[in-house]
Amino acid sequence: GDAFSALDANHDGVLSREEFYAAMGSMGAPAVTTMRAPTTTYAAPITTMGAPMTYMSEPVATTQQNFTTYAAPVGTLPPTTAAQV
C-alpha cells in the first residue's frame, strides 16, 4: 500500500530500523535512544581461613545408676481383706 511505500525509503520491500526510526521521528514521536547493558564483572567471593574447627568428643557414659521407686516396698502395709475394702 501507499503507507508502506511512504515508509520504505529505498523501495526494497523491507522496512529497516533506520527507515522505521526516520518515519517515527517525522511523526513527532520521541527520539529512540539505544542503550547498551552495563558491564558486570564477577569475582570469586573473598574467603578467609581461620583456625580449624574443633568438635566435641563423645560424652562419657556414667556407671552410676539411680533407681526411683514408685510403689511402697513390700511388707510395709498391713494386709487387707476383701471385707475391709
- Percentage of residues in DSSP E strands: under 5%
Q: Encode the helix/strand succession as letters.
A: HH
How can the largest sheet be summarized?
none
Going by helix content, strand content and strand pairing, the class is: mainly alpha
Number of helices: 2
Q: Which residues form runs of ≥5 with pLDDT under 50?
A: none
Distance between the termini: 115 Å
Rg on CA atoms, Å: 47 Å
Helical percent range? Answer: 10-25%
Number of strands: 0
**Morphology call:** elongated
Instruction: Give average pLDDT, whole number.
Output: 74
Summary of the model, kept short:
The chain has helices at residues 2-7, 17-26. It is built from two helices and no strands. It has 85 residues and is mostly helical.
List the helices and strands and how they pair.
Layout (H helix, E strand, L loop, with lengths): L1 H6 L9 H10 L59
Description of the structure:
- There is one protein chain.
- This protein is mostly helical.
- 19% of the residues lie in helices and 0% in strands.
- The protein contains 2 helices and no strands.
Protein traits:
85 residues; mainly alpha; 2 helices; 19% helix; elongated
